[in-house]
Inverse folding.
């Protein structure tokens, strides 16, 4: 098929010959031929090795001294170099029989003699080469890595994993190896063997062969590539772009390559229906590959220039079509930095990410150290040094063991993965997690995942450095920052794409990362955890309390039992936690991605690359091991609006509010304050009572009591500690950034909700973290800015929830004295701010108001303060709008109305009416509840109903409220709550007829889809594909002693209950996020600073009105789309074709999807624009994103126009 | 349908005593049992012949079809003993001491009351019927009224006694104190004779949970065990029985669950009965048939707590440590016991093992339950272990660990 273009190469004859042995005729004949082939191959390998040695750079000295293990001294002697050879030989020979014989020499006595002769020959040759090259050689490391990697896949095959997973694993493993070693010759041999074994053959695909071609082409071995082409043909596979690119790359590398060969190759490519341009647009090139391919092509077509298909004729989703096509009036905000400044920041960020970790001062460091603290710090650093040594030693030993057993133990072969970094880097990673170990321990799975992720991240950064990515990013970035600092009509993403197209040379930025399969991450992690548990020890008398000296471990692998399941747990020894606590580390080490970026993040221009410069980041956060999202995103063609929105949010520059930070730190370093949400230090924690259970003087009941006290105290202690550490991290990071301008790169979850990537310190966090954040850019307050600040302050206090905006403003003006006092004497004054709901933000706001009021001209006062506005408020609004539901819409303020409406009061009223009716009928429980039904009682249930709260959950919520009423008879709580939840549900049903109908329809569709074995999927109006990641759990053995529950296996059988219950809330969340993205895009084009915390939108006081207008317009724009019709069409097309017909689903479509929407509901949708009441609810956004905590607005306020 | 359901296809009776053979002899030939009515008359006749104690007409088992219909109507997933032969067999296995007035019999979920009547006929002096389903209560109470105090009926779900959470309790959920106080049963010493025998069929859902909770209560003398050594005579699936009695070396089933029960109780298999002999409420027919593919028998198992359980070092207050020790050891069965012990207290493992006369490399899954008890006793005496922080850690987990 495709071999002719390589025929000129000398070695091909040999390959051909080998092929002919594939089907031996007779037994004797077979043996004779095998031996013959063995000779051939050995000779070939020797030649190869001799040339290979030159390529090999990475000397691993420890292996030189390692005695060879597998082939044993009988065969290969002690020379380490001969070992891989001996192993390779049978693999390259084309027979299974002979491949076995080398590894198990005792069985093949007949052949032994002859082989030994050969091997001696090899040995002598090797020795020669060794002598000449000295210690520069790589004795088999890479060979080992690769062969073990290849073997690794074998058991997986047997488990009938899908081909996709397999190639993923191989790819991951092989790309790992290519980082460490250059001499990857054995890889191909190994894979050949694999190809020969019929059972596994079906799992192989062209991409796997391509990996090997790549390896050969790195070494310029055209003959080997030819060989693989033959194998491909033999396996019945067709070469693809990757294959040809490897071949061409190799030809480009051999400068004396004959033009005829290249021409042949190109012709062959054409025959296979692949064009040269495809190569450049679809291949993921690394390092200099692209240039080499181009070189090769230019040998025969000197004028060739790849024509890249641009995204010119892009289809945008209809809701944003105008946004992209008519942008003359767009004024994108620019950053107020010079190019020089941005360049410097970029360099800083780059070096931080290259290091992977950052060590910063803890805010506790400023505390004066006592003698004991000093002593403990010294002890801790000694211990760490010692642990580093022991871990390093243990790691090396373990690595050696793995190296030796790599061929025997196929299942859990981690060897390649522990060669990726320097040994001491692994040790550092381990020590880092020992330092951060929570007091109460950590579940093994989480710990393992953490460690595994850290290894992966570090490796991935390394890989980018090796692939010359850093240089390329630097050059693109330096051009990119040009546009950030000036007015343009180009969006950051578009600019980045242009630049990438301009910088064709060098590696491709996107698509070089292969994330490791989840299992591999866990395996690497557990391997490291195991090392830690086994090797980290401490003297038991180190604190002088133990009665004798023993070396005891600091980490313990235990089990906790949850229901009937047992969960592996790693617990630290109390002595260790004691030391850790007493020492109060002055330095904290974080992974670099934890720190906000120092330069504007890389814009998401493809789904594979964005946010951080080097640290791998996913555009969509997924549950562990779920890969379907990625597949969907990759297929998706129009993600530009979503990416632009992410980029817009990430481009907002921040700075620290230093006065507030200083106050918080002073309290934090003093005694903390529970009232002010500053966690107190552990010295304030309750003492854990100590008692001796053996003491006979206690009664059994006393013992039980004391035991309970101990348990309570310990629990409290653990909670306090974790709160304290959380605050310590946040404040330390904030303190570290105190004089910097910084950025938060963003990504999203599977519903499209957007989150900042740095986990500890960000604007989504608690009241404390929000209070210390300011926009880096300042804008004058303008005519209404001060009023907005005041209204914002009242919102933060949580007072006046039911007043209109004017009412709030009036209130603020009436307490100006308190406000100013709070600003001037936060800790010693009247402390007005301390009673606010969000006290720290309120304090910050007081200070801003004070500064503004006292400035000569408040309108010109430059404010950096973000004012929050609640966006779409309430899932009910989306439902009401979707259902064109008049009554419902009115009660959530979608319709114009004189007074602000409150949906909760409405429901409460309805419930009360129903109750009164029942009471009249003589229902006991209805009578008991007389006069007790309030807005508060129903509020939580009403607002969670859109997020899918069930009767069960609703009853619990109401039960909680009832328990708060002291006079309510306890015996009735259960009955009353059950009764009330029913009333609430029926009241809601009456008010929001459409809502229920839509919810029911969504639930039913999801049930049917899931029952038919599919996972529910949909596409948001902005074109973001969404898939619900709920699958049935499955147990999987990760390593010999660890067994995890894995939710995402290849089969991905949907978990029907979750799929169905979660669909309505997830769908509403996806609409919510779409609305946010639309608002963010339009705010960006209007030049606003805009950030969001889901549906709470932030901007400068000056631009609040503009933002509000955009927010409303976009809500209308969103709901002017035929959202439900589109969903219905999509679901029908996606799930109702093919073998599974879901007739029911069609019939289940809500009636208004079939009839004209306007007939069904009379909501004049455009009313919205004139509605004075929309969206002005301040919302107490808790820092928790879980569904049940979604705390939706209560008050609705008039807009000031 | 009726005939197949109530027919006892065959039974594997493991009792080899003469009594058991008598029991089997009393069974009807298969052909005769095909007709329900004939079975009934036969049964009654033979019952009257065997047990002269039958002095009340209203103890007549009643119409089998009627009982069957009522059992089928039950809304919960339950099994019932409808077949009079089976009921007799159970009564027989409870032994002659049911006539002893000192032993109270608790019958869990009697349903239509076939076994209840049989037991009474067999001469039970004090029988407490704990029925969780209201629909059966009325008839049982009716029966109660006609008797002279031999039967007490309580609306109670025995397997849900002493719930963990708090909140308003409604019958059939109740606390054991209330049940026992209402019945006027006082606490007894552990070493006294068995004061109460509980008879019933283990519920289908959460069998493991129920049994674990029981055994924890047993070791700490909580819940019903405050009232003495309560003996169980329970029907459970064959699989459950297998897990309960798993032996060391059975790496799949030999777990903390089995070890704890075997330490605490004499476990005796009284009888094996095919599933077909039981009547299931209509709701579950499918689940049952799916569940018993592998094991198509129900086992009547006697769990009698050992009188000497608390005689040598083990007390209800330190038992929680034993529980945790066994659970930690057997979380994995293929690890060396010495590793676990060294975790508790470094370097003490080999000493303990030699005291126990166990090899150094013994796996946790190969150690007999008695050895675990012995091990615990040694550890409890040892200074080193009381010093170990893990010891405290264990205490911490006792309250709700694993319930």
């Amino acid at each position: 098929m495709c071999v002719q273009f390589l025929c000129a190469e000398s070695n091909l004859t040999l390959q051909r010959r080998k092929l002919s042995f594939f089907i031996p005729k007779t037994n004797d004949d077979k043996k004779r031929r095998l031996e013959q082939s063995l000779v051939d191959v050995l000779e070939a390998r020797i030649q190869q090795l001799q040339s290979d040695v030159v390529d090999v750079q990475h000397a691993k000295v420890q292996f030189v001294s390692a005695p060879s293990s597998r082939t044993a001294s009988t065969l290969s002697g002690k020379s380490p170099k001969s070992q891989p050879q001996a192993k390779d030989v049978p693999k390259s020979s084309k027979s299974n029989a002979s491949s076995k014989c080398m590894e198990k020499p005792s069985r093949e006595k007949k052949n032994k003699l002859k082989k030994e002769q050969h091997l001696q020959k090899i040995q002598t040759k090797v020795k020669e080469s060794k002598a000449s090259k000295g210690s520069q050689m790589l004795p088999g490391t890479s060979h080992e890595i690769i062969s073990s990697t290849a073997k690794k896949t074998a058991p997986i095959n047997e488990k009938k994993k899908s081909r996709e997973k397999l190639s993923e694993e191989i790819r991951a493993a092989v790309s790992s190896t290519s980082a460490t070693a250059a001499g990857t010759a054995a890889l191909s041999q190994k894979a050949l063997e694999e190809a020969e074994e019929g059972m596994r053959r079906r799992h192989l695909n062209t991409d796997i062969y391509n990996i090997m071609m790549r390896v050969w082409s790195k070494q310029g071995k055209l003959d080997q590539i030819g060989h693989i082409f033959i194998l491909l043909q033999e396996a019945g596979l067709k070469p693809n772009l990757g294959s040809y690119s490897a071949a061409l790359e190799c030809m480009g590398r051999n400068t004396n390559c004959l033009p005829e060969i290249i021409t042949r190759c190109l012709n062959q490519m054409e025959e296979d229906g692949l064009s040269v341009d495809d190569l450049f647009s679809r291949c993921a090139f690394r390092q200099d590959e692209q240039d080499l391919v181009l070189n090769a092509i230019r040998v025969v077509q000197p004028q060739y220039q790849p024509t890249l298909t641009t995204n010119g004729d892009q289809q945008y989703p209809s809701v944003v079509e105008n946004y992209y096509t008519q942008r003359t009036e767009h004024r994108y905000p620019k950053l107020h930095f010079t190019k020089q400044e941005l360049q410097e920041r970029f360099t800083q960020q780059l070096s931080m990410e290259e290091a992977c970790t950052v060590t910063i001062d803890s805010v506790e460091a400023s505390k004066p150290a006592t003698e004991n603290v000093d002593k403990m710090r010294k002890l801790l650093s000694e211990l760490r040094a010692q642990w580093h040594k022991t871990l390093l030693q243990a790691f090396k030993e373990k690595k050696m063991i793995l190296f030796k057993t790599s061929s025997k133990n196929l299942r859990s072969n981690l060897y390649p993965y522990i060669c990726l970094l320097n040994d001491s880097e692994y040790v550092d990673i381990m020590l880092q997690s020992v330092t951060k170990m929570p007091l109460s321990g950590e579940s093994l799975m989480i710990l393992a995942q953490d460690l595994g992720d850290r290894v992966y991240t570090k490796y991935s950064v390394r890989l980018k450095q090796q692939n010359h990515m850093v240089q390329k990013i630097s050059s693109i970035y330096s051009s990119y920052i040009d546009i950030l600092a000036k007015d343009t009509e180009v969006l950051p993403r578009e600019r980045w794409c242009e630049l990438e197209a301009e910088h064709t040379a060098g590696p491709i930025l996107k698509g070089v990362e292969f994330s490791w399969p989840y299992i591999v991450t866990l395996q690497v992690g557990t391997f490291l955890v195991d090392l830690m548990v086994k090797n980290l020890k401490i003297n038991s008398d180190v604190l002088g309390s133990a009665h004798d000296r023993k070396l005891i471990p600091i980490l313990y692998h235990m089990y906790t039992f949850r229901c009937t399941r047992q969960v592996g747990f790693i617990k630290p020894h109390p002595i260790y936690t004691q030391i850790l606590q007493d020492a109060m580390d002055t330095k904290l080490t974080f992974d670099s991605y934890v720190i906000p970026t120092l330069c504007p993040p890389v814009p998401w221009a493809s789904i594979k690359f964005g946010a951080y410069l080097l640290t791998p980041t996913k555009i969509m956060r997924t549950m562990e091991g779920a890969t379907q999202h990625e597949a969907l995103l990759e297929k998706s063609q129009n993600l530009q609006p979503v990416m632009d929105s992410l980029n817009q949010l990430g481009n907002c520059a921040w700075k620290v509010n230093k006065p507030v930070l200083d106050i918080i730190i002073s309290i934090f370093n003093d005694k903390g304050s529970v009232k002010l949400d500053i966690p107190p230090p552990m010295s304030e924690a309750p003492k854990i009572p100590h008692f001796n259970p053996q003491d006979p003087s206690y009664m059994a009941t006393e013992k039980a009591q004391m035991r309970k006290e101990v348990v309570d105290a310990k629990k409290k202690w653990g909670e306090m500690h974790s709160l304290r550490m959380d605050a310590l991290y946040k404040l330390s990071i904030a303190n570290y950034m105190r004089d910097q301008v910084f950025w938060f790169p963003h990504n999203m979850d599977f519903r499209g909700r957007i989150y900042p990537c740095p986990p500890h310190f960000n604007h989504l966090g608690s009241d404390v973290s929000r209070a210390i954040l300011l926009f880096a850019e300042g804008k004058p307050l303008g005519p209404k800015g001060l009023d907005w600040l005041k209204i914002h302050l009242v919102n933060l206090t949580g007072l006046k929830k039911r007043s209109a905006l004017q009412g709030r403003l009036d209130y603020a003006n009436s307490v100006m004295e308190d406000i100013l006092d709070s600003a001037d004497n936060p800790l010693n004054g009247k402390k007005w701010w301390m009673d606010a709901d969000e006290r720290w933000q309120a304090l910050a706001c007081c200070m801003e108001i004070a500064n503004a009021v006292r400035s000569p001209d408040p309108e010109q006062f430059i404010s950096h303060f973000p004012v929050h506005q609640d966006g779409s408020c309430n899932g009910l609004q989306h439902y009401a709008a979707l259902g064109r539901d008049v009554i419902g819409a009115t009660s959530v303020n979608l319709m114009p109305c004189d007074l602000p409406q409150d949906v909760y009061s409405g429901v409460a009223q309805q419930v009360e009416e129903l109750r009164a009716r029942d009471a009249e009928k003589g229902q006991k429980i209805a009578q008991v509840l007389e006069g007790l039904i309030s807005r508060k009682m129903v509020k939580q249930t009403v607002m969670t109903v859109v997020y899918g709260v069930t009767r069960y959950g609703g009853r619990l919520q109401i039960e909680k409220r009832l328990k708060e009423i002291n006079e309510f008879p306890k015996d009735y709580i259960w009955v009353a709550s059950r009764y009330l939840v029913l009333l609430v549900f029926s009241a809601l049903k009456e008010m929001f007829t459409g809502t229920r109908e839509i919810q029911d329809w969504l639930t039913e569709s999801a049930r049917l889809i899931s029952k038919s074995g599919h996972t529910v999927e949909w596409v948001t109006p902005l074109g973001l594909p969404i898939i619900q990641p709920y699958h049935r759990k499955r147990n999987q053995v990760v390593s010999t002693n660890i067994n995890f529950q894995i939710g995402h296996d290849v089969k991905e059988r949907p978990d029907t209950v979750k799929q169905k219950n979660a669909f309505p809330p997830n769908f509403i969340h996806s609409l919510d996020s779409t609305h946010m993205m639309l608002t963010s895009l339009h705010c960006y084009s209007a030049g606003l600073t805009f950030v969001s915390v889901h549906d709470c939108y932030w901007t400068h006081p000056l631009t609040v009105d503009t933002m509000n207008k955009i927010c409303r317009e976009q809500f209308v724009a969103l709901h002017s789309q035929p959202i439900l019709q589109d969903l219905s069409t999509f679901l029908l097309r996606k799930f109702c074709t093919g073998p599974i017909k879901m007739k029911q689903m069609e019939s289940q479509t809500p009636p208004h999807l079939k009839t004209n929407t306007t007939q069904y509901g009379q909501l004049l949708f455009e009313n919205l624009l004139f509605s004075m009441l929309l969206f002005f609810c301040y919302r107490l956004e808790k820092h928790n994103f879980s569904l049940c905590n979604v705390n939706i607005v209560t008050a609705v306020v008039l807009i000031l126009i | 349908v009726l005939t197949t359901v109530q027919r006892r296809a065959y039974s594997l009776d493991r009792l080899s005593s003469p009594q058991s053979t008598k029991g089997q002899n009393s069974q009807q030939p298969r052909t005769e049992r095909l007709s329900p009515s004939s079975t009934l008359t036969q049964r009654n006749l033979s019952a009257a012949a065997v047990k002269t104690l039958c002095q009340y007409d209203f103890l007549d088992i009643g119409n089998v079809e009627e009982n069957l219909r009522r059992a089928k109507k039950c809304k919960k997933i339950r099994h019932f003993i409808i077949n009079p032969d089976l009921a007799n067999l159970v009564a027989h296995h409870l032994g002659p001491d049911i006539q002893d007035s000192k032993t109270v019999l608790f019958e869990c979920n009697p349903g239509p009351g076939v076994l209840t009547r049989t037991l009474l006929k067999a001469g039970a002096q004090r029988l407490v019927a704990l029925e969780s389903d209201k629909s059966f209560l009325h008839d049982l109470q009716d029966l109660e009224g006609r008797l002279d105090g031999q039967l007490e009926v309580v609306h109670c779900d025995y397997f849900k006694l002493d719930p963990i959470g708090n909140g308003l309790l409604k019958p059939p959920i109740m606390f054991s104190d209330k049940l026992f106080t209402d019945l006027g049963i006082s606490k007894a010493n552990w070493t006294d004779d068995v004061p109460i025998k509980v008879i019933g069929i283990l519920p289908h859902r959460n069998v493991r949970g129920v049994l674990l909770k029981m055994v924890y209560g047993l070791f700490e003398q909580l819940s019903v065990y405050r009232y003495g050594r309560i003996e169980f005579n329970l029907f459970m699936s064959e699989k459950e029985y297998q897990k309960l009695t798993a032996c060391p070396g059975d790496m799949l089933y030999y777990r903390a669950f089995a070890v704890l029960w075997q330490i605490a109780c004499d476990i005796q298999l009284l009888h094996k009965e095919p599933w077909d002999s039981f009547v299931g409420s209509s709701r579950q027919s499918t689940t049952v048939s799916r569940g018993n593919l592998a094991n198509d028998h129900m086992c009547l198992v006697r769990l009698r707590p050992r009188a000497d359980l608390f005689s040598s070092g083990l007390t209800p207050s330190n038992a929680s440590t034993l529980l945790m020790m066994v659970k930690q050891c057997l979380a994995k069965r293929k690890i060396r016991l010495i590793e676990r012990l060294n975790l508790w207290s470094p370097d003490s493992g080999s000493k303990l093992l030699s005291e126990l006369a166990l090899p150094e490399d013994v796996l946790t899954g190969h150690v007999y339950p008695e050895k675990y008890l012995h091990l615990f006793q040694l550890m409890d005496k040892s200074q080193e272990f009381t010093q170990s922080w893990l010891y405290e850690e264990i205490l911490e987990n006792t309250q709700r660990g694993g319930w």
